Amino acid sequence: MPGENLSRDEARERAALLSVEGYDVSLDLRSAVGDADGEPRTFRSVTTIRFRCNEPGASSFADLIAPSVTAVSLNGKDLDPSEVFDGTRIALEDLAAENELVVDAQCAYSRTGEGLHRFVDPEDGEVYLYTQYEPADSRRVFAGFEQPDLKAPFRFEVRAPEGWTAWSNGAGELTDGVWKFAETKPISTYITCVVAGPYHYVTDSYSRTFADGTTLEIPLGAMCRKGLAPHFDADDVFLVTKQGLDFFHENFDYPYPFGKYDQAFVPEYNLGAMENPGLVTFREEYIFRGKVTQASYEARANVILHEMAHMWFGDLVTMAWWDDLWLKESFADFMGTFGNVGATRFKDAWITFANRRKAWAYRADQLPSTHPITADIRDLQDAKLNFDGITYAKGASVLKQLVAYVGQEAFLEGARRYFKRHAYGNTRLGDLLSVLGETSGRDMTAWSRSWLQTAGVNALTPQVLLADSRVAELAVLQEAAESHPELRPHRVAVGLYRLTEGGALERYARVETDVEGPRTVVADLAGAEAPDLVLVNDDDLTYCKIRFDAASLDTLLEHLGDLTDPLARALCWSALWNMTRDALLPARDFIALVLRFASRESDIGVLQMLHAWTHTALDHYAAPDWRATGGALLAEGALRQLRAADAGGEHQLAWARFFASTASAEPDLALLKDLLDGTTSIEGLEVDQELRWAFLGPLAAHGVADESVIAAELARDDTASGKRHQVRCLAARPSAAVKAQAWAQVVESDTLSNALVEATIAGFDQPSQRELTAPYAEKYFAAIDRLWQERSIQIGMDVVSGLFPALQDRPGTLAATDAWLAAHEEAAPALRRLVLEARDDLARALRAQERDAQAG
């Protein structure tokens, strides 16, 4: 891995020296099928690059990661591959003003989701290929200049096995056995794409006539593996796609610039999706094999719109280097929800954003690795780790604050000017701020410094003084952590709520105001009737942690379920969860609130988030000697709600999954087994294949389902999805031999694909098996440095984060982590970052456990 890195300084030097005129890439993928003769499977890649050099006679390099290079030619002169290629770079000496580089290489198919991934479907033996490059894996498929600011047009051609179809960014046609694709607009290397195989492919079209009378026609396509075709609801994918294209055309005033719009749902995908222009790739889990809640459909629509927004923010206009990754990801994350609310049936998407996406941001922003939204990205390893909750969710939250600050129309007009001014180019922070300053009339410098160039999250707390049952003075107190003391300007709404005679908790007053400094008086609320609840950041206009005054907290502890507004309720749940994470609220009290009020939660996405938080509260934040009691209470409460939920409804499904995940007592496990066997049933609950695996997981983890039962389930569901579930269940069994085998498969071997590595890790670490996995804490620290050196960065990240002994939550594990960090000060910064983040989570858990024990 270390030799594959590229520094920001190297990229800047190369960008100053070179400009690229075009690529021709020819891939021969016929080796994807058939016998590989026991050798590593490779494919032929021939790349021709035409580029200029501003300083003739200078030297540079091209990027390529390949097992071997057959030939290299520079300006018609053959070079010795053994002399110019070191496994990751091709040295280019004595460049001319105009250059042509031709590289003929044997590149490797991937099993890690990086580069050209090869997947064999266990259901029918069919082979499927797709590429995934961000931030720098196109060099695993073709030679190039792997940095975002060296954009160029691309022409691809693909030789594929007979009967296959191939797709790329441009429209393609099959000519004399070769798939040839139209030349792209100038784009960065990391958003080029190839998909090939016997995919199930569905087509549609989009048309829009603009005010000037011109009409835009966009061919639409959507694809998945043949095995998933019976589950593929392409009509809904196309519906959201068309709604999104209408929405962005109306708001961006710049026609979609990349011709066709294909969307490929592919197996063993590391990301949620990737914005390759003309050929967006998604993880195939967005095709639902069983019944799911509307939250899953909303999430898919959000991702579709997120990737579509990238066609403008990221593809048309691209950041110059990964420092400004936010210029695409923060905007796409914001636009995904903005578009969902504005264009689709998911009108409550801002509730999901407030409750789910922001939770990701709050965690990331309190880690020792927190960073400004505009980050300091020294190299590609930094870049890989910066696809995090700050770049995405905090950035999107800050943009939501910016819209409140400058106004929606000024914000959108700034985007329109930005696209037209920088189309097919690369930008930095100042380029966007300048157009926003133009359209809003505001000086963006101070706003940018506070929100984009500093790290950390502020906490806002109301301070209420009463007189004669009226508000004498209401102020908002702002705090910041000592490590990141910046107090920011916040545009907030402050809401006052009271209990009605009917028992509802409703808002009766609301004021928008600017909060600055440590204390801001909200003068417009003076004289208002005394509230039962003060909600700072009502309507979720800013990015902050919400705190409560004592009276408001008391109200919530007794009446949270009486809040009638679903967004206000989601914000209060989020605030209470942050208090639990910060050891201000005992974990058992948060669990009690969930048991008492979650049944009244109307928003299914919020309910499912509460279930996830409750698991974390029990497994990591509750005092160890209370966990058994808490687990029993949760299982009892989950079963009660499962039986009480409307038959066949999505709340019933959510409670069924939660009950399965909490089941540990013999009667509960027996019920799961009976539901699987069909000897009992719950009215309205359809135990489809995905729910069967959800029930089988805890049965395996508690020793009720053995290898033969798991094998029988795989025979029932002998698919790629079934295989992942089987691997997870096998690794979850409570046996020392099972844990040793799982550890060896992930740590001592590299034969598992990325998806099966993920499944094995998920099964290995079970909260009920702390004693079984305790010996692996020491082994973890002995192995991770070697793993980081030997594996790809994606697998390295999965293993280092996934196998950290978080469940060995005692001071000794914290000391062992500190000892490793002290002994490995020279380890790769990205590796140290992952360990530091895991250490911080562990330290937070120990503080929360101490707080919970005090409440016992």
Can you describe what's shown?
The protein has 856 residues and is of the alpha+beta class. The protein is built from 28 helices and 28 strands. Strand 8 (115-120) and strand 9 form a beta hairpin. The longest helix has 26 residues, at 829-854. The protein is globular and about 90 Å long. The chain starts with 7 loop residues before the first helix and ends with a helix.
Query: Globular, elongated, flat, extended or rod-shaped: what is the shape?
Result: globular
Number of DSSP strand runs: 28
Please describe the biggest sheet, giving its number of strands, its sense, and whether it closes into a barrel.
Answer: 8 strands, mixed
Q: How helical, in percent, are the residues?
A: 40-55%
Pick out the low-confidence regions. Answer: none
Indicate the radius of gyration in whole angstroms: 28 Å
The neighbouring-strand order within the major sheet is: 5-4-7-2-1-10-13-12
Structural class: alpha+beta
Amino-to-carboxy terminus distance: 48 Å
Count, helices:
28
Strand content bin: 15-25%
